[in-house]
Design brief:
Elements lengths: L5 E12 L5 E12 L3 E5 L6 H8 L7 E11 L5 E3 L5 H11 E4 L13 H12 L5 H15 L15 H13 L5 E5 L7 H18 L2 E5 L3 H7 L2 E6 L2 E7 H7 L3 H8 L25
Parallel strand pairs: 3-8, 3-9, 6-7, 7-8
Antiparallel strand pairs: 1-2, 1-4, 4-5, 9-10
Helix pairs in contact: 3-4, 4-5, 5-6
The structure holds adenosine-5'-triphosphate.
The site of adenosine-5'-triphosphate has 15 residues, from strand 2 and helix 1.
Family: Belongs to the ABC transporter superfamily.
Membrane topology: Peripheral membrane protein
Pfam families: ABC_tran, oligo_HPY
Length: about 290
């Protein structure tokens, strides 16, 4: 299996919201996420990024509905899974085992009355019933170390952790079952810039170490230029451009992408120094 093979294919996916004024939130979107890559998805608020993420997870709820298209997960076993055809237990297993998601504000979705260890342990208990308590504890400890949270915090409750630590715990949970793809929808928006950058670096490092693919969604194009292999630009429900990071930055073909790039003044500084080159972040310029 090579790095260039797709892990997920979205084919002409359309999602509408049946409100008073019908909203076509995602319109005939086609894209592929390749094994082991970070695909950035950028676009201004309301362009349909979160709806696309929900669609990929088969999580669209009324008044939303999928009006057309397919989502296919290409499992590393060689099996192709028709995601929109899954339901019940098989769908739940797919969501944690194959593809996991860190949603916007997810750090507030930790249960406040249960220590974080028990929450990670629950995921393992449900999906890996053969694991003993000691194995679950060891795995939780290993996951905490991976995401940079001292394992001594395993007994903590969510309110005892900083926002950044809570988000790291959410990322640890998303990694728990070694999924092949992690979808991150504005995972750091609620955090201050320094903490945000720390977490994004961690995600980038983990991705290189563990080789899962990431769909990283944000309106923060400079951030995507730092961490992505390729970037898709979304506008009014459609993907208007998709290309490698350097092509997006130096040779964008689309006027809307140019407009988005111009809207970030910091991008007019040291030109392109912060772009991801061969998977390495430039530590000095990637502030
Ligand atoms: N539950 C809903 N009911 C009706 N319309 C919705 C619903 N959720 C989203 N929409 C509409 O669908 C469109 C796309 O919204 P979506 O949240 O997917 O965009 P987004 O790019 O993720 O925005 P943001 O960056 O602000 O999260 C918007 O016009 C939004 O108002």
């Amino acid at each position: 299996m090579t790095a260039k093979e797709p892990v997920l294919t979205v084919d002409s996916l359309s999602v509408h919201y049946a409100t008073d004024r019908a909203v076509p939130a995602v319109e005939e979107v086609s894209l592929q996420i390749r094994r082991g890559e970070i695909l950035g998805l950028a676009g201004e608020s309301g362009c349909g990024k979160s709806t696309l993420a929900l669609g990929i997870n088969h999580l669209i709820r009324p008044p939303g509905y999928v009006s057309g298209g397919r989502v296919t997960f290409h499992d590393d076993s060689g099996e192709d899974i028709d995601v929109l055809g899954l339901s019940g237990r098989v769908l739940r297993t797919y969501r944690w085992n194959k593809v996991s998601t860190v949603f916007q504000g997810a750090m507030n979705s930790l249960n406040p009355v249960i220590p974080v260890f028990a929450q990670i342990s629950d995921v393992l208990k449900t999906h890996r019933p053969g694991m003993s308590r000691a194995q679950r504890r060891d795995r939780a400890q290993e996951l905490f170390e991976l995401v940079g949270v001292p394992p001594s915090r395993l007994r903590s409750y969510a309110h005892e952790l900083s926002g950044g630590m809570r988000q790291r715990v959410m990322i640890a949970m998303a990694l728990a079952l070694t999924p092949q793809l992690i979808i991150m929808d504005e995972p750091t928006t609620a955090l201050d810039v320094v903490v945000q950058r720390g977490i994004v670096r961690e995600v980038s490092r983990l991705q290189r170490e563990l080789d899962f693919a990431v769909l990283f969604i944000t309106h923060d194009l400079p951030l995507l230029l730092e961490i992505s292999d390729r970037i898709a630009i979304m506008r009014d429900g459609k993907i208007v451009e998709m290309a490698g990071v350097e092509d997006i930055y130096f040779a964008t073909r689309h006027p809307y992408t140019r407009q988005l790039l111009r809207s970030f003044p910091s991008l007019t500084g040291a030109r392109g120094d912060f772009i991801r080159h061969g998977g390495e972040l430039d530590e000095e310029t990637a502030v």
